Structure formats: C-alpha cells, structure tokens
Amino acid sequence: MKRTLYPHPRNPRYFTDDGKRAIYLTGSHTWCNLQDMGVSDPPPEFDFQAYLDFLQKHGHNFIRLWRWETPKWRYSLDKPFSFSKPHPWRRVGPGLAADGKPKFDLARFDESYFERLRTRVGMAAEIGIYVSIMLFEGHCVQFAAQGWEFHPFNPENNVNGIDGGRLDYYTLKRREVLALQETYVRKVIDTVNEFDNVLYEVCNEAGRYSTEWQYYFIRFIKSYEKEKAKQHPVGMTFQYGGKEYSGSNADLFNSPADWISPNPEGGYRDDPPVNDGSKVVLNDTDHLWGEGGNPQWVWKSFTRGHNVLFMDRIVALTHRTITWAGLSPAEDIPYAEEIRMAMGNTIKLATRFNIADMTPLPELASTGYCLANPGEAYIIYSPSNAEIKVDLRTAYGRLKVEWMHPVLGNSIQAGTVDGGEWCTLKPPLEGDSVLLLYK
Asked: Which CATH number do you get for residue 422?
C-alpha cells in the first residue's frame, strides 16, 4: 500500500493509490470480525488472526469491519438472546441498564473498543487487506423483536438522560444525539487516520429515513479529515427498511459517497448493469440476498465493472462464528466455497491485467459479459459452454487465447486468433468458463 485510496482518475469504477494502477476490491466479511458475538454472555472471542489467514488463503483483499450497536438482542421471541462486546462507551453506572449491567456513560469512551479497532486495522494493513469501518448499524434496531430495549441510546440504558428515539437515532432530528454521534465518529477517525488501508461506511441497512443523516456524516467525515494527515473514501450502502422504509439505489448514486453497495433493483443480483463510472460499486451479497450468491454472480459483476463482496458465515474458520445466529455449525451458505474461490480468481486477473485501461463492453461478446481494453485485452465470462462470438474488428495482429476455469482457476492455452473481424470460439471446458484474449 503506497497511500490511501481514491477513485481512479481515468477509470473511477475502481480505486487507486497512485493514479496509475486500479485497485479492485473483493473479500469475505462476517458479523463478528470486530466485536465478539454469541449466544453466551460473555460471547466467545473471535480469532481475528485465523480470519486474516482465511482471507489470504482465498486471495481476498477487503473486509467490512462490522459494528453491532446493541449489547443484547434477539430477532425472534422464540430464539435465545445474542450478546456482543466491547462497545464504544464505558459501562460504569450508576444504576443498571435493561440487560442487568451498569448503565453506559455516553460522555466516556471505552478505550478497549478503540484499541481493538486500531489493532485489527493494523493487522489487516500488514498483509495488504483493506478495511471498511462500519460506523453505525441500523438493521437490528429496525427488525429485532428485542434490540432497542438494550441500546446505549435508549434512556433506560445510559446515565446521561439521552433518548435516541429508536429510528430518530438515524436522523438529524435530535441535536444532542447528533453531537454525541459526531464525537464518536471523530474518535474513530483519530484512532485509525494513520492507516492507508481504511475506508468508512456510514451505516448498515438503516431505512430511507436515514438518507439526509447519512449524507451529513459523509460530508462530516470528509470535512474532519481535511485537516488530518490522510483522507479516506466514504461509502453508503443499501438502506434496507422492508416494504415501508427501504431506500432506492438513486439515493446512493445521488449521495456524496465515494463508493456504494446497491440493492437488487436494476439487476444487481442476476444480471448486474454496466457500471458507468459514476461511483465505485461494491456489489455485496449482504444487500442482494442477505445470505446468498453464486460464482456466476461473481463473474457477471466483475465483467460489468463492479467490485465484489461476500457476506460469509466463515464456517471453515470457526464454528463459533455462526452460533450467535442460532445456526448449526455444520451449515454453510450454498456455493460458499465456490464463491470465495471465484472472487480470488477475479482479483488475480485484476492484478494480472491493467484493469485501469479496461471497461465493461458487453456488446463485444455474445455472452454480454466482457471487460476489455479493445485491441489489447479482453476478459469474457460465459455462463455456459456454448460458442462465444467476439468482436475483434478494432484489434490488429494476433491475440493469445486462454481459457480459465472460473472457480478452480486452472488455465488452458489455446493458440492465437487474428484480429480485424468477428471471431467464434468454442470453450474446451464443461459448464461456464472465462475467455482471455490478449496481446
């Protein structure tokens, strides 16, 4: 890492750190990679080093570092409670909160939370992994059967007399709440500003009522960092609110954010639209399925100019990771390992080819999934083993032909093809494949 990321000046579908090479981001993220979570109190400690080893094994270079706001919650009354720790504020009382522990003092930070944050960002930086720090989390407060009851900004749970107002907490309505949120955000920035591998995400899945609040904090972060040594990208992700409160992708594209993660509208789940370069798009299964995806989606997203993220239970890493959700340790998301492997293969190609010079050009291939620098290099995904027609009318001379398995990553060299006209090529692989054409 040379310096902090910023949108590439020639190809703003991607970030860069030097204005020349494009940095494509992809990785598996999981709920308890910052705070420990589980159905026991205290929850088991998450093995962050094993998690980083897991990411390196799969060739990933990005994670969302999750924030969980409530120390106790359950999404359904017939499920056991889950617990999380540590939290940004000290629990010193006087008096007990709804979970039976000392109330939070919102004027006093718990330094152990910020020390853990700084340590984990630093560990990721040492091995070249970028980290998006989630500042707020809105899904639990909206949808948990019991969640807000235990939130630090519920007036029953703090000694400061602060009432966050549940959903008002994610708006600009309560000035005393906003002031405390600003203080917390400044503390996070002060804690990690020295690192080059940092990005920020304002909030996970608060509804559309949070739009102006999220815009406010995007600008707030940028303004506060102007006077700092480093400036980092700020993101805005899908505003999930069920049928009543969900936001639109237009809210994301119209935001002052540097990067966004959309919802399924427009085909981001099944047939991702071409990224026009107006934002860096991190297409995330968390906001498309919740849990889901498949390796075909990975390659469709990559060849349409998007970065790719996977909401992962990480079953292969530790059983404890998923116990908080009430899941069997043997369960994993269908196609999870294939997705992880496919993501690793996309980053290999993004590194091997100069994707700063490549744009999504679906019209150049009969499959509709083509990332290309016309005349120089083409990455074409085929979701079947049917013949592929490629427009090489702007290519001169010969191009090498290579076929790659989209999951296993093994390649077959298949000679050359002459430019100057349309060509038809038959995949030698069963099932889907990746065709590489290059000078």
From this structure: 2.60.120
